[in-house]
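User: Can you recover a sequence for this backbone? Please restate the input before giving your answer.

Assistant: Of course. Working from this structure:
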């Protein structure tokens, strides 16, 4: 069933406020850009501080480090559709303000954290704020742009500002951790969130699309629990064992709940996500490659962060250099991206972006772990960054532009959800695969090293990450060179998996995604469907 959310005493759709789609003014564009940049800064900062968290918060295993980022990503991926509904019903301006306030609270909790538990709570609350801001900002510009060309330009700007958040986050984390306190990074986000909430409250215009929308609680519960079960299984698999009952059970629960979600969405009167949208080939394909492509990108960002900070023990500031290459180029490429999106079919921009990402990731997989200078990172990380700039703008525009205008809010929430689900799976899956490969390689190397027999048991129990990080006066630190070699094998495999994922996205996009005329025909098909009314 779905729970209608209308004014007291009014239960019919007809009694709800009619849709409001105001044209975008400069203040609203600024508020939207500020909000999406802020949300991405909050999302990306923890990944730039992995090495610091390892030393300060003392996580007991690598999976606890993964959960810091995934506590932010989980509510984002699970709740964006629901926040999209709430914005359609009650006005998106309220979500802009509320999302910023949630981020303020969450980052304040994180900034005072003394252990991983408090950091989990803070990042989860901050993730709720980002979950409100991502779909809301995209829905505002989608509903406020009345032509395909205008919408494409605004989406390119939105994507550039999102990537600018990725560009600012590593500098913020690196500078504060190196020259001050890592806690300062979170308090700066608190100040920015307060400023964003105030500006949005006083200056942003409101919009809504309440027709046929209501809160789908069964759908929300099933998709939220399914994503949690899936992430839990992927993150904890290397530690608990892939064949352990709790991991197998979690995968089964995730699969059952995802099937239940699809069934529920086909039967409720006002679904969280209309399944018939996936009859539109461009929408379905763009959604699929968004998941896989964003998994590829954030898996790369996570792997380079672990490589530089946790394995090589480089500073957060030096790690920021890699993140600047990954995300700092998008804002400078905005004129070129907008030009290309206005003149070429999305398949070529998307395919080219994914191809550049794949080449960069293949090169990153070949970087020797002994190489700690920064220039060798320029080509591989730069290619991934340029490719991501093209891909994220064009895939977002494809999803939003291939549905009728009255479904822009749902499309915006959907593209945010699938993008951030891919983001969530990046660190989780790459971390799981890399750690599994590392553990096997490390244990095998210890078994083949008779000189380390006296510390073999202690090193195996500690694991490669801890062995590589213990002080030199700890006896099993003698196994650190083997740990570094094993970690290199594990995370090089991670880069390789990301490259294969990006290459698959490239091939599928170029081969299957239709042109503008085909997309317009599919939009007309959806609009003519009585269910769309």
């Amino acid at each position: 069933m779905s729970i209608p959310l209308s004014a007291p005493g009014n239960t019919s759709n007809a009694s709800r406020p009619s849709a409001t789609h105001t044209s975008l003014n400069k203040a609203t564009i600024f508020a939207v850009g500020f909000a999406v940049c802020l949300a991405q800064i909050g999302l990306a900062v923890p990944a730039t501080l992995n090495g610091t968290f390892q030393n300060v918060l003392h996580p007991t295993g690598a999976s606890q480090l993964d959960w810091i980022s995934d506590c932010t990503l989980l509510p984002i991926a699970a709740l964006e559709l629901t926040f999209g509904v709430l914005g359609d019903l009650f006005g998106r301006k309220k979500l802009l303000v509320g999302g910023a306030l949630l981020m303020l609270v969450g980052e304040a909790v994180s900034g005072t954290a003394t252990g991983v538990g408090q950091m989990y709570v803070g990042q989860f609350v901050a993730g709720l704020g980002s979950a409100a801001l991502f779909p809301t900002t995209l829905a505002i510009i989608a509903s406020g742009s009345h032509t395909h060309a205008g919408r494409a330009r605004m989406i390119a700007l939105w994507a550039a500002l999102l990537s600018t958040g990725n560009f600012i986050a590593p500098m913020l984390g690196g500078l504060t951790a190196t020259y001050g306190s890592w806690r300062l990074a979170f308090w700066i986000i608190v100040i920015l969130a307060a400023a964003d909430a105030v500006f949005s409250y006083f200056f942003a215009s409101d919009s809504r699309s309440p027709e046929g929308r209501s809160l789908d609680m069964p759908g929300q519960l099933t998709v939220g629990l399914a994503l949690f079960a899936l992430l839990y299984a992927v993150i904890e698999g290397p530690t608990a064992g892939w064949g352990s009952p709790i991991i197998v059970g979690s995968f089964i629960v995730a699969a059952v709940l995802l099937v239940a979600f699809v069934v529920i969405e086909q039967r409720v009167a006002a679904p969280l996500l209309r399944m018939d949208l996936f009859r539109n080939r461009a929408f379905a394909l763009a959604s699929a490659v968004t998941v896989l492509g964003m998994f590829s990108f954030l898996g790369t960002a996570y792997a380079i962060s672990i490589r530089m900070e946790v394995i090589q023990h480089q500073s957060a500031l030096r790690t920021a250099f890699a993140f600047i290459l990954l995300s700092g180029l998008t804002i400078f490429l905005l004129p070129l991206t907008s030009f290309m999106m206005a003149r070429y079919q999305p398949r070529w921009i998307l395919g080219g972006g994914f191809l550049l990402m794949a080449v960069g990731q293949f090169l990153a997989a070949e970087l020797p772990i002994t190489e700690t200078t920064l220039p060798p990172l320029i080509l591989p990380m730069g290619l991934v960054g340029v490719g991501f700039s093209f891909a994220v703008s064009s895939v977002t525009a494809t999803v939003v532009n291939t549905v009728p205008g009255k479904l822009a809010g749902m499309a915006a929430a959907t593209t945010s959800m699938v993008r951030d689900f891919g983001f969530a799976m990046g660190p989780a899956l790459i971390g799981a695969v890399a750690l599994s490969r590392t553990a096997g390689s490390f244990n095998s190397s210890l078994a083949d090293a008779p000189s380390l027999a006296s510390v073999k048991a202690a090193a195996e129990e500690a694991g490669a990450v801890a062995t590589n990080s213990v002080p030199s006066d700890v006896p099993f630190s003698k196994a650190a060179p083997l740990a570094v070699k094993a970690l290199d094998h594990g995370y090089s495999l991670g880069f390789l998996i990301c490259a294969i994922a990006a290459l698959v996205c490239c091939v599928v996009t170029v081969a299957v995604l239709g042109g503008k005329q085909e997309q317009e025909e599919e939009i007309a098909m959806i609009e003519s469907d009585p269910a769309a009314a």
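That completes the design. Residues 1-16 have pLDDT under 50 and may be disordered.
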